[in-house]
Automatic annotation (TrEMBL):
This is BCL2 interacting protein 1. It comes from Anas platyrhynchos platyrhynchos (Northern mallard). The gene is BNIP1. The chain crosses the membrane at residues 203-220. Signal peptide: none annotated. It is a single-pass type IV membrane protein. Keywords: Coiled coil, Endoplasmic reticulum, ER-Golgi transport, Membrane, Transmembrane, Transmembrane helix, Transport. Pfam families: Sec20 (PF03908). One of its GO terms (cellular component) is endoplasmic reticulum membrane. Belongs to the SEC20 family. GO terms for molecular function: calcium-induced calcium release activity; SNAP receptor activity. Residues 44-87 form a coiled coil. The keyword tRNA-binding does not apply. It is found in: Endoplasmic reticulum membrane. Residues 134-224 form the Sec20 C-terminal domain.
């Protein structure tokens, strides 16, 4: 009888192992379940069904063990049955813990959503009030930039006029002090360097204005269109 029962015993053992692995995987799915509760309910229903099959296979294996002719084989199978029962109890404990952790996570997620919804409503209420203030601040900043640019342009015009006057003075002095050609050439080099510096100043002013305008546009974008 032991030889005849060998095949079903082996098949029963394999099915027990398979259901055990499937239950472990399903418990992990429950632990990782992000919600909602309906999804958790479906996972629990599947786990219950797997436990039902596992319990039935363990009972079958226990019945086969009791029907063994040899006492040694009987005791070995009964020991396996006991081990499978302990493993099933361990899986049930892990299942309960996974459900508890998942429910806590779902509750926390729902609370976070409620808090985010309240924050969103408050932000919408304050947006209209802050828009007028932001527009006023930006307008004031632009006016300040305009005044600064006007002063820079005026200073540049004065510098150009000063350079022009200096050039005329040098040209007039050139006729009177031909013997000082070396000094005059040095003066011309200084004037050329000054002109280049003027161009550099204008370029720096332009770059500063472009950077400021880009910063203003970026701030406007972040305040007016934060979702972009």
């Amino acid at each position: 009888m032991a030889a005849a029962a060998c095949v079903p015993v082996r098949v029963c053992h394999q099915e027990i192992v398979r259901f055990d692995l499937e239950i472990k995987a399903a418990v992990q799915d429950i632990r990782d379940c992000p919600g909602p509760l309906s999804a958790l309910t479906e996972l629990n229903a599947a786990v219950k069904e797997k436990f039902r099959h596992l319990r039935g296979r363990i009972q079958e294996l226990e019945q086969m063990a009791r029907e063994q002719d040899k006492e040694s084989e009987k005791q070995a199978l009964l020991q396996e049955v006991e081990n499978h029962k302990k493993q099933m109890l361990s899986n049930q404990a892990a299942w309960r813990k996974a459900n508890l952790a998942c429910k806590i996570a779902i509750d926390n997620a729902e609370k976070d959503q409620l808090l985010q919804g309240r924050d969103s409503l408050r932000q919408r209420k304050t947006t209209k009030e802050s828009l007028a203030e932001s527009a006023s601040n930006i307008t004031e900043s632009l006016m300040g930039i305009s005044r600064m640019m006007s002063q820079q342009v005026q200073q540049s015009e004065e510098t150009v006029q000063t350079l022009a006057n200096s050039s005329r003075t040098i040209l007039e002095a050139n006729e009177e002090f031909k013997s000082m050609s070396g000094t005059i050439q040095l003066g011309r080099k200084l004037i050329t360097k000054y002109n280049r510096r003027e161009l550099t100043d204008k370029l720096l002013i332009f770059l500063a204005l472009a950077l400021f305008l880009a910063t203003v546009l970026y701030i406007l974008k972040k305040r007016l269109f934060p979702f972009l």
